[in-house]
Amino acid sequence: MEIEEGSNKSGIEIGLYTLGDICPDPHTGKTISTQQRMKEIIEAAKLAEDAGLDVFGIGEHHRLDYATSAPQVVLAAIAQITKRMRLTSATTVLSTVDPVRLFEDFATLDILSEGRAEIIAGRGAFVESFPLFGYELKDYDALFSEHMELFLKLNKNDRITWKGQFRPALKDAVIAPRPLQKALPIWVGVGGTPESAARAGRLGVGMAIVILDGDPIRFKPLVELYRKTGLDAGYAFEDLKVAVTGHGYFSKTSQQAKDEFYPYYLNYWEYVNRQRGMSFRLSREDFEQKTRPETALFVGSPQQIIEKILRQHELFGHQRFLVQMDIGGIPFKKVAESIEVLATEIAPAVRKAISKT
């Protein structure tokens, strides 16, 4: 049986994503185990579904300080305790994975989840997967292009003949299993380059833009380029979906949200930049500036976040909003509280406002 990709009558899907980072808690200095981190990710997904959120995403990193090197496996576990939420990678490092193996894994996930699997494909913030899986970093862009081309063909055909530069050729190869959906929804993660936005449009796939800082208005030309390129390539407007992703944390008051989140936000960026050989300093005053109404960091009270999401929706007309809140060693209890605020206070108001427009 084939089923069509699910739709959201409110006009916007709201959900969570995690990269599964494992950081010491800045208050206690303690670091939880990989096993505990995975348990908490699965529990967060269950809380999100029970509270009424629409999407849950898991990122891919091949490092000891991240818990999720195989998002499809963790998503399969989540699929068994959820019934409705869309389940997506966030992102899959497409340059360093065999597209055939990737398609089979996510088609299997789609069957196990009864048609809820998706992929956000990207090129990765870290590059450890290139030597790990035998790829050359100099082929960074060419690998992504070839793997995307092949994956899209696999998504349309149960038999394929194909030849490329990096992978052994396929001759009348059977591609099994087939997903329960007509095709696996695929998005491209875009960090801010026009080339990436135009490519997503030419391919007719969704575009997930990562906005972590600054005024999001600077991304409006990318969204316009994506849609224009997609329409010029012959795709329908409704096929050209946009997702906005970013960091966030929510509490009853703005002051409480900022007071609770700042130490973990600072800890996360200090830790990430240290892994890259870079220093990072962020004063509390700088953090306050990052949370202003016109910025992309979603930290504040429900009303502030509602207004911020709706402002971005006026800019982009996007169909999906995903937030990452479990960063920098923040305890699961605080994550759970923030999920509840998002699901019960923010999401209903945003859906209601957008459904009217």
Please supply descriptive tags for the structure shown above.
357 residues; alpha/beta; TIM Barrel; eight-stranded parallel barrel; two-stranded antiparallel ribbon; 11 helices; 43% helix
List the helices and strands and how they pair.
Elements: E1 13-18, H1 34-51, E2 55-58, H2 71-79, E3 86-89, E4 92-93, H3 99-112, E5 117-122, H4 129-132, H5 140-156, E6 159-162, E7 170-174, E8 186-190, H6 194-203, E9 206-210, H7 220-232, E10 242-250, H8 254-275, H9 284-290, E11 298-300, H10 302-316, E12 320-324, H11 332-356
Helix pairs in contact: 1-2, 1-11, 2-3, 3-5, 6-7, 10-11
Summarize the structure.
This protein is α/β, with parallel strands linked by helices.
Description:
There is one protein chain. This protein is α/β, with parallel strands linked by helices. The chain has one domain (13-356): Luciferase-like domain (TIM Barrel, Alpha-Beta Barrel). Helix content is 43%, strand content 16%. It is built from eleven helices and twelve strands. It has helices spanning 34-51, 71-79, 99-112, 129-132, 140-156, 194-203, 220-232, 254-275, 284-290, 302-316, 332-356, and strands at residues 13-18, 55-58, 86-89, 92-93, 117-122, 159-162, 170-174, 186-190, 206-210, 242-250, 298-300, 320-324. An eight-stranded parallel β-barrel has the order 1-2-3-5-8-9-10-12, surrounded by seven helices. Helix 7 (220-232) links the parallel strand 9 and strand 10 (242-250). Helix 1 packs across helix 2 (71-79) and helix 1 (34-51) packs parallel to helix 11. The radius of gyration is 20 Å and the shape is globular.
